[in-house]
Amino acid sequence: MPDILIVDDDAKIARIVARYLEQAGYAVRLALNGAEAVRIMQTTENDLLVLDVLLPDTTGLAVCRALRRDASAGSWATRPDIPVLMLSALGLTDDVVDGLRSGADDYMVKPFEPRELVERIRALLRRRPAGPPPQAIIGDLGLDRPARLAVCQNQPLELTRREFDLLAWLVGHPGCVFSRGQLLDDVWGEDYDGGDRAVDLCVLRLRNRLRAAGCRGVRIDTVRGSGYRLICLQEKQP
């Protein structure tokens, strides 16, 4: 289920949009200003941003630029390339152009038809990449997802199924911070009924295996109070 962040200081409009999106099967988060939106994107992963242009503390243009620029450094949980749909009462051509130039993928003028908004969001989400590429090379670590093979220094790593799944997930989201609960849902699966200590133990084993293999291009960091993230020194994908 895609997670959509709605940023609008008009709580009534935000609730209307949220209701239509929830009825369409999306999970929704709300933010009433730019600072709150940035905080949410820094700490939680989102799949699409619905962004008002006129906010009480900043502009949607500034928030969009910050997402495209700052999230690229890998310090935000939300990826920098998520689709952004701007909403605004400003409907002149120059306003639309400014929104698109700031990094938005689409622009709707208020008042709008909620059903059209939902369909535009569906279209934007359809254009997303289907997922991480089947092969990835990060520093001296190579990953082949279909073959379930990880290689470091030209030597295969002996990984359990869960260790490979966790490594593949982190490699597919470099720089993103994931809580233990998120990793349990995304890697172990929602049906897993064990404790989150399983994540800590799996991370510990992965670190030991990477260290023993001499991997220098990748590191799994602990983010105090938040979870884990993969730090890449160099990445290229075929």
Structural overview:
By secondary structure, the chain is α/β, with parallel strands linked by helices. It has 2 domains: 3-127, Response regulator (Rossmann fold, 3-Layer(aba) Sandwich); 135-232, Winged helix-like DNA-binding domain superfamily/Winged helix DNA-binding domain (Arc Repressor Mutant, subunit A), CATH 1.10.10.10. It contains 8 helices and 12 strands. It has helices at 11-23, 34-43, 60-70, 93-101, 114-126, 161-172, 180-188, 197-213; strands at 3-7, 27-31, 48-52, 84-88, 106-109, 135-138, 141-144, 149-152, 155-156, 218-223, 227-232, 235-236.
Structural key phrases:
238 residues, alpha/beta, Rossmann fold, Arc Repressor Mutant, subunit A, 2 domains, 5-stranded parallel beta sheet, 39% helix
Summarize the structure.
By secondary structure, this protein is α/β, with parallel strands linked by helices. Helix content is 39%, strand content 22%.
